[in-house]
Amino acid sequence: MALDSNERPGQPIAKFESMLKTDDVYFFDAEDFEDIIHHYLNNGKVSLGKKAIKIGLQQHPDSIELKLLDVEVMVFENNLEVAERMLDELQLLDSSNEEIYIQRANIYSKKDNHEAAVTLLHKALELADDSFDIHSLLGMEYLFMDNFQLAKENFMMCVSFDQEDYSSLYNVIYCFEFMEDYDGAIYYLNDYLERNPYCEVAWHQLGKQYTAKKMLNEALASFDFAIISDDTFIGAYFEKGRVLEKLGRYNEAIENYETTISIEDPTSHAYLRIGKCHEKLHNDDLAKHFFYHTVHEDPLLDKGWLAITDFYYRKKDYKKALYYINKAINIDEENSLYWKKCAKINKALENYDEADFAYKQAVDLGNFELETWLSWTAVVLQCDDSESAFQILQQGLEFYPEEAKLWYAVTGVHLMLKQTVKAKKSFSKAIKLDADKLSTFEVGFPQFYQLDWIQDIISEMKRAS
Fold it and tell me: Which parts of the chain are TPR repeats (predicted)?
């Protein structure tokens, strides 16, 4: 039995859900169905949205808006061919409906044809009375195309329509940051704050821009204003703590991190930062206490294990350091920094084979720092493997062909391989590149430093200078 809407007073959504629980059928206006469907889709309840579409089309079979919502769900579920056929039919009925172009644009976007999507969205803009959502979609399409300037302009339009559209505001700042236009971001945010002086989100973002420019006092003031605007804004306290750390004001930084813990459940990141501050203050027991709290709170936070590793490494307790760096590697074995740290610890423990393996892993994962090549060379030389040392240095020279330290090391390896002629050439190149780094050869290969021909080259260089 169909009931008139007046017989069951209440909001459309509550009434619709009541209908689903009974055998009764209630009548809704098409606009009510649109509101119900939007509610479910916006809250991720797609199955209920689909039920509302089905019932809505039974009651209003000619409603183009309900059919377009059906298309929207089809696109969301990647039923693109069906959606396109439905749009073809709808366009014959209403060719000036901007939603048809929006859904066609969504289909092209799903197919990674973002240029076509943009063209259709501009057509929708020509037809639309309310362009807010279209500018948001255009912004996202331009982001897909890496056109950050046009993306930024469209998200700015969204913010101009709705000053509390923080999602678009974040996207505007993201575009500024990607283009490394921190000054532009600062100008934009200050202008925004002229109109919205108590917007904690804008103050927070402004503080991050000042931090990026190393304008730390200005950053601190911005985070303070964010906290004044919302004294429960955890992100502002946390970022303020980071700035205070940079300024060496560690006790104040700790207070801000502790505030984040008092407002909400403790986080591993807050414990980690508190531990780092205590470490700077030489409160070793407290530092260790908070580092252990970090990994207890989140055993998968590899940075926590790394912090404990560094703590013991500085204490020269290399066995404990090795235990904890292995914990970090087990969590993220693709992190070249962890492998390099593992290599350094094994080197300190004189586990040269393990250090060799760890350096190889670090390089394979993209760590091409100069110090890596030099340390790796020193490790394999401890294993009396001069050939491998030479190969490692050759790889290093591909990245640093004019680095004197590498050429001094090549000289030493040539001499170990009894290749005197090659050694003379590499030593001459090294000393011409940087005579001031000669000490690295003297320290690394003291057994060769007093060779007559080496002393002759050094004397000749001194006379020439």
Answer: 98-131, 234-267, 302-335
Give the separation between CA 405 and CA 4, rounded to whole angstroms: 88
Q: Which CATH superfamily is domain 265-367 in?
A: Tetratricopeptide repeat domain (1.25.40.10)
Res 1: pLDDT: 32
pTM of the model as a whole:
0.77
| Distances 404 to 4, 265, 363, 373 between C-alpha atoms, Å | 89, 53, 21, 13
Q: What is the pLDDT of residue 86?
A: 77
pLDDT tens per residue across span 170-221: 999 999 999 999 999 999 999 999 999 999 999 999 999 999 999 999 999 9
CATH topology of domain 181-264: 1.25.40
Instruction: Tell me the pLDDT tens digit for each residue of 65-121.
Output: 877 777 777 778 777 777 778 777 777 787 778 888 888 888 888 888 999 999 989
Domains 181-264 and 384-465 share a fold: yes
User: Would you kindly state where each structural domain of the chain is located, as residue ranges?
Assistant: 181-264, 265-367, 384-465
CATH number of 384-465: 1.25.40.10
- Burial of 45-71, coded b for 16+ CB within 10 Å and e otherwise, reads eeebbbbbbebbbebbeebebbbbbbb
